[in-house]
UniProtKB/TrEMBL annotation:
Its EC number is 1.14.11.7. SMART domains: P4Hc. Keywords: Dioxygenase, Endoplasmic reticulum, Glycoprotein, Iron, Metal-binding, Oxidoreductase, Repeat, Signal, TPR repeat, Vitamin C. One of its GO terms (biological process) is collagen metabolic process. Residues 691-736 are annotated as: Disordered. Residues 559-673 form the Fe2OG dioxygenase domain. Pfam families: 2OG-FeII_Oxy_3, TPR_leprecan. The keyword Glycoprotein applies. Its cofactor is L-ascorbate; Fe cation. One of its GO terms (cellular component) is endoplasmic reticulum. The lineage of its organism: Eukaryota, Metazoa, Chordata, Craniata, Vertebrata. The keyword Cell wall biogenesis/degradation does not apply. This is procollagen-proline 3-dioxygenase.
Length: 736
């Protein structure tokens, strides 16, 4: 529809003034008291009621009101979304007349359309929400729900009510958005050890609003395993979900009550057009901010830059490698709408054209229409916002790096260029910043075991706090543990029965110390071999504690005997890794080179180790990389008795190359400085031996500054905890 510029300006003014009047002063139509009671109540009132009940120790009432506040807020958003959809067509007949009416009547038709739409929205909202429930909530309430604080209260409330499953769920949901909350982290670990708490309890109740991040992570995982068909499917779904979440956010900007300019203390704004301009700019700014909101993970402060373009870049590469060249062309042309002169993208487009050969129809594939609309709408909004910044001193922060310069008015371009250059310099500084290991370990200490030699150190391994020690095991000991693995390891142990957690080209077997001890008690494996498996963990702990000069105690956190078997006849053309590059105690994002120390990462791990048992296989080398997960900085070839140790943090991304033939076995170990996270399964195994009258010297506890008795006493002081052992999460082990 072609609109006259002057007409459009006045239309925008009337549009926002009347919609604002609806949002600020909307009231529900009259009705019976029963009808009013069935309407949605103010969720802030319900929340405050729950908090008051909490501090009054009325636990049942607190749980009821807090849960109602969460449900009511989600219902309110759903009502707004539905009313927005229902009122799209309201007044459309009057809107169509704007093109044809001359003289002064066009503005009346604009008012007619705006009023009909406002009336539709007011009536729709009024049918579902009380008048009080339609009012804007305070910024304090927005912050409370934005940080998921209701779940903080619910966690304690359900614990007091002895509803441990719900308490664990609330704790996990809160912790996802507050990963640095140490008390909640400790609470979660306690819940894991409580009787009656299952793994299903630890799910994010807000995951419905974070589906795009779930899809993003899944797509990255499929890429890492070179499953390009699945990767392309996940990236495409991720793009669509990101667009949907962005649109949902934009709808809420329009439907959420807005304050008029006079409410903002803008005394100089008197005219209807000035007020309309100020309000419309606020609405457009809210819509633009949805880009950052959707691109920010829960618990993060900053958004991921170029979130949508990054997905498109991954998608076209995955489509190309999956053989969908036509789809790759469309996606790449969509990406070029963001960065039209990007050389790499243009080179890739030419490559795709060359691959298609004479297929002119596929070469002429146009960008996806949803991306075309996204770009067109965003650019128009940016033009209006930069105009407002230039002429009304409106404050606007552009959320996008791809904004073209011609959108910015001439008078602002110098400032805009300076801001952009400053941002680019900051990004470059971050990329060039030298890695610093804050683990507290310092490589180069003595090796307190005869026959053990240092084969590779930090300098040879091109990193920080890395070491390779040889001679840690004898050939005979390697053979004994290999026989133990063959006799007792169950396929997929630690991964819920899946053959391999990372690649379809290998099978996976694993054995824990506790399982080995129980099998030995049943006479299924040799008792001395099970004891050797246990002793190797302590042997490695002593060596690494000394070499890395740990100033504090070091506890074994987990031990897992792992064997990877190449599937015969399924290795041709294989490009994936046996284990994708990762970091042991944080979530690595290769694109941003960030590593987030939050669940589901094992954030308590401080030191990692692999003790190899054999070398009669092909592939299976340990690789260290930079944070981009691509640049290999060192390789370690396995052999019997070879130990690799390294700090578990972001200075040491690592992975395992494909095992293309044979069987690779190793003992994976992790260590922690925090006694709370010591391996409880290991202690249970020791308790089983003690019950049989077999003594076990627990050097790890004694050297760390506490006896076994002291440890038991410390655990007995935990807040009313019903312990049944570790209750380890068996679905999340990431083996080396």
């Amino acid at each position: 529809m072609a609109w006259l510029p002057d007409h459009f300006t006045v239309y925008v003014a009337f549009n926002f003034i009347i919609l604002a009047s609806f949002n600020v002063a909307s009231t529900a139509p009259g009705g019976s008291s029963a009808h009013v009671l069935s309407l949605l109540q103010p969720y802030d009132f319900l929340y405050y009621s729950g908090v008051r009940a909490y501090f009054g120790q009325e636990w049942a009432k607190a749980a009821e009101q807090l849960e109602k506040s969460i449900v009511t807020k989600e219902s309110l958003l759903r009502v707004r979304r539905q009313c927005h959809a229902d009122c799209v067509a309201a007044g459309r007949e009057a809107l169509y007349k704007l093109d044809s009416e001359e003289g002064s009547l066009w503005d009346l038709w604009a008012l007619d359309w705006v009023q009909q739409k406002a009336e539709c929205m007011r009536f729709c909202i009024g049918r579902h929400v009380t008048p009080a429930g339609q009012l804007a909530v305070s910024s304090d309430i927005e912050y409370e729900f934005g940080t998921r604080n209701p779940y903080n209260f619910l966690q304690v409330t359900y614990y007091k009510l002895e509803k441990l499953q719900r308490a664990a769920s609330a704790a996990h949901t809160y912790f996802v958005a507050n990963p640095s909350h140490l008390e909640m982290r400790n609470n979660i670990e306690k819940y894991r050890r409580m009787e009656g708490v299952t793994e299903e309890a630890f799910h994010d109740r807000e995951i419905e609003n974070e589906k795009h991040w779930v899809l993003y992570d899944a797509a990255v995982q499929y890429e890492a395993s070179s499953d390009w068909v699945q990767a392309a499917e996940k990236w495409k779904t991720c793009v669509n979900e990101t667009l949907r979440q962005t649109e949902e956010c934009r709808v809420q900007c329009e439907m959420t009550p807005q304050r008029l300019p006079e409410d903002r203390g803008v005394d100089s704004v008197d005219g209807v057009f000035e007020k309309a301009a100020a309000l419309s700019l606020s609405l457009l700014s809210c819509r633009q901010s949805c880009v950052s909101q959707v691109a920010t993970r829960p618990g993060r402060i900053s958004a991921q830059e170029d979130y949508l373009p990054t997905q498109l870049e991954h998608l076209h590469i995955a489509q190309f490698k999956a053989g969908d060249i036509s789809g790759a062309v469309q996606t790449l042309r969509s990406l070029l709408l963001f960065y039209p002169s990007d050389k790499d993208s243009l080179d890739n487009l030419q490559l795709y054209y060359d691959t298609l050969g004479g297929d002119t129809e596929s070469q002429g594939t146009q960008p996806a229409q949803e991306i075309v609309r996204y770009i067109s709408r965003s650019l128009q909004e940016k033009k209006l916002l930069y105009f407002g910044r230039e002429n009304f001193d409106f404050s606007f922060t552009d959320p996008d790096l791809w904004t073209p310069e011609d959108v910015v008015p001439e008078s602002l371009r110098e400032t805009w260029r300076a801001e952009k250059e400053k941002m680019n310099e900051k990004i470059k500084e971050g990329e060039q910043q030298e890695e610093v290991d804050d683990s507290g370990f310092f490589a180069g200490g003595p090796v307190p075991r005869k026959g053990v030699t240092i084969t590779m150190d930090d300098e040879i391994l091109n990193g920080t706090n890395r070491v390779v020690l040889d001679g840690v095991m004898t050939e005979k000991e390697c053979d004994r543990i290999l026989q133990l693995a063959t006799a007792a390891a169950s396929a997929g142990d630690g991964y819920r029965g899946r053959r391999s957690p990372h690649t379809p080209h290998e099978t996976f077997e694993g054995l824990t110390v506790l399982r080995a001890v129980k099998l030995a008690q049943d006479g299924m494996v040799n008792q001395s071999d099970a004891r050797l498996l246990h002793e190797l963990g302590e042997r490695v702990r002593v060596l690494l504690h000394s070499y890395f000069r740990s100033p504090s105690g070091l506890f074994i956190s987990f031990t897992h005997l792992v064997c990877r078997n190449a599937i015969a006849g399924d290795q041709e053309g294989r490009l994936d890794l046996s284990h994708p590059v990762h970091v042991d105690n944080c979530l690595l994002e290769p694109d941003t080179k960030q590593c987030w120390k939050e669940p589901p990462a094992f954030i308590h791990r401080d030191l990692s180790a692999i003790l190899y048992l054999n070398d009669n296989f092909d592939g299976g080398e340990l690789i260290f990389t930079n944070r981009d997960a691509k640049t290999v900085t060192a390789r370690v070839k396995p052999s019997c008795g070879r130990l690799v140790g390294f700090s578990s943090g972001p200075v040491n991304p690592h992975g395992v190359t494909a095992v293309t033939s044979g069987r690779r076995c190793s003992l994976a170990l992790w260590f922690t400085k925090q006694k709370l996270y010591r391996d409880m399964e290991r202690e249970e195994a020791e308790a089983l031996w003690a019950a049989d009258g077999q003594s076990v010297v627990k050097k790890d506890e004694e050297e760390a500054g506490g006896s076994a008795t002291a440890a038991r006493n410390a655990r007995s002081q935990a807040p009313q905890e019903k312990s049944r052992g570790r209750g380890r999460v068996t679905g999340g082990k990431d083996e080396l």
